[in-house]
Amino acid sequence: MTKLGVFETLKPTFVQGENIAQTHQFVATGAAEPGFVACFQVIEDGRTGSGSVWLVPANLHEPIRQDAILLAKGKDRPAAIALLNYLKSEKVQTIIKSFGYDLP
């Protein structure tokens, strides 16, 4: 919003949820409009499920990283290694992309 020059104008209207689920509830019920929520909350099967969507262009914000890492405590635990490998699999990467997330 800063790069678009609208932050200061819109700032008095901001409502912030305690978490992304509450923020989505505000927007979905009309208690706040519009709102920034996670893609997965509004995209179903690769399409907008309800409401409307504007994907913020990447040049207007810093990358949002949601990484999975293997902690040292789990380095010798087969289940932890298997989960991390599963998350890296082509199948899961396709699912993640279907919810609107670009992957590095």
Model description:
The protein has 104 residues and is mainly alpha-helical. The protein has 2 domains: 1-61, no CATH class; 65-104, no CATH class. It is 33% helix and 4% strand. It is built from 4 helices and 2 strands, in the order H-H-E-E-H-H. Strand 1 (43-44) and strand 2 form a beta hairpin.
Chain-averaged pLDDT: 85
Radius of gyration: 17 Å
Number of domains as seen in the coordinates:
2
Secondary structure tally: strands = 2
Sum up the structure in keywords.
104 residues; mainly alpha; 2 domains
Topology:
Elements: H1 7-10, H2 20-29, E1 43-44, E2 47-48, H3 78-88, H4 90-98
Antiparallel strand pairs: 1-2
Quick structural overview:
This protein has helices at residues 7-10, 20-29, 78-88, 90-98, and strands at 43-44, 47-48.
